[in-house]
Structures are given as structure tokens and as C-alpha cells.
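Dear Dr. K.,

Following up on our conversation at the group meeting, I've run the structure prediction for Phosphatidylglycerol--prolipoprotein diacylglyceryl transferase from Pseudogemmatithrix spongiicola. I'm pasting the input sequence below exactly as I used it, so you can double-check it against your construct before we proceed with anything downstream. Let me know if the numbering doesn't match what you have in your notebook.
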Amino acid sequence: MYTHLPFAYDLGPLQLTGFGIAMLLAFVIGQMVASENLEARGFDSEIMGDVTVAAVVGGLLGAKLYYAILVGDATAIFSRAGFVFWGGLIGGIVASAGTILYKKQSFAQISDAAAPGLAAAYSVGRSGCWAVGDDYGRPWDGPLSVAFPEGAPPSTVDNLVAFGAKGLEGLPGNQVLAVHPTQLYETAMGLVMFFILWRMRDHKHAAGWLFGAYCVLAGLERFVVEFFRAKDDRFFGPFTMAQVIAIAFAVGGVAWMTMRSRVGPGRPATQAA
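The predicted C-alpha cells came back this morning:
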């Protein structure tokens, strides 16, 4: 078992956290990968700056709005907690699509180029959850288990019971337990998604097909990892709200891939609108 301590430094009135650093790096790396891919396809990558800004704003608003709806408290929008992935991803996609259409550019072309960057950004972003001890998993005493005595929140019996963990009766409420380090699982799976999408970036289908592939992979990744998460929103039997959204996202990705699956003569097919 490994005991985790959060990465955070106080700089006067400001606190520098691993989560904040990871979020910054996630957007920077995501933009770099997307810009590189767009330029390799023969397009001007200047628009990626505007798209990234839109993704940041839309992602933050979407994440907080989703969290407020999930907990049933409108004031939760103003808390420092609750940056929920699905809300952030959906909000970021909507804001980015609006910016792309406003600029009279092709959403299919840009989303296709951005797909590997989205996976890379996800992997880096999840490392921020690890840095602050957030979004850990269910109690586990395996060889890779991690205890979060100073997590956000700590992995105590009381907190894990509140998250829906079973079989902890009789244990002291303040006892810190080892759990699945699901943040690291997601960081690793994000890297796998990135490498898969990067290898498929020269596909012969119509533009947008690779974005559909990203949606499928992201949905499958989240659906699997949720089984290991400490969650209190299992509203659908053993399934969490995030898993329901993951299934819908993956199905939507399959539909989009099917729509964009026509084969063309090499690179021009990828550039098709």
C-alpha cells in the first residue's frame, strides 16, 4: 500500500495545486497536438487558439453546471469542488463547435484533427486528480492500493460509506482505508486512447470519423473505470450516472463514425467537410 500526500503550495493568498497545473498543461498539450495534426492535413492551425479558449470556458461552465444539477444545489456552481468530467467535455464540445461554426470553419475537419489531443489532454488532466487525492476508487487492499489521508476528501470509512461503499460496518469512522487509485487507471487509459487515435490519424474515411472514434473510446474507458470508483450516484442498479452518459456517448460515436465512414482517395477524403 502507498500513502498519498497532495501536491499543493501556498503562494501568499494563492494556492498552487497539482490539479491546477495539470488542467493548464492539459489544455496546452491538447492544443499543441490538435494544431500539429491540423497543420499536417494542410490546414491553418490558427483557429485552434480560439477553439481552445472556448473549450476552457465551456468546459468550466459545463463541469460546474453538471455538478450543481447532480447534487441539487445551485450554489455548488460557486464552490471550488465539482469539476465533473462529462459536464466539462460536453460544455467544451458545445462551446468549441459554436466557435468553429462562427468562424465558418468545418467542425468535421477540426474535430477530426483534435481527437488525439482530447485524449492526451484527458490523460494529463486526470494526473491532476491524483495530485490532489480526488476521484479515487473503492476500498481495496491489493498491491497497487493507495491510502489518501489528506485527499479531497480523505479516504476514511465515513467518506467511503457516504460514497456507497459496502462491508465497512464496525470500522472506526475516521480510519483511513486503502483504495483503487482510479486516477492512475484513467491517466494510463487516456494515454492508450491517445496512442490508438494517433496511429489512426491518417485514416481514409471522411473528416470527423476520428472524432467519432474518440467518443467511442472515451465512453468505453469511463464505463469500465466507473466500476472501480467510489461513487454515490448509482441510480441505475450497479451503474452510475457517468456510465449511462458514457454509453450514450459511445453509441453516438458509433453513429458518427458510420456517417463518416465513406472511403476516399487518401488525404483528400480526410479533408472532406
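Two things stood out to me. Confidence is low (pLDDT under 50) at residues 265-273. The CA atoms of residues 123 and 187 lie 4 Å apart.

Best regards,
J.T.
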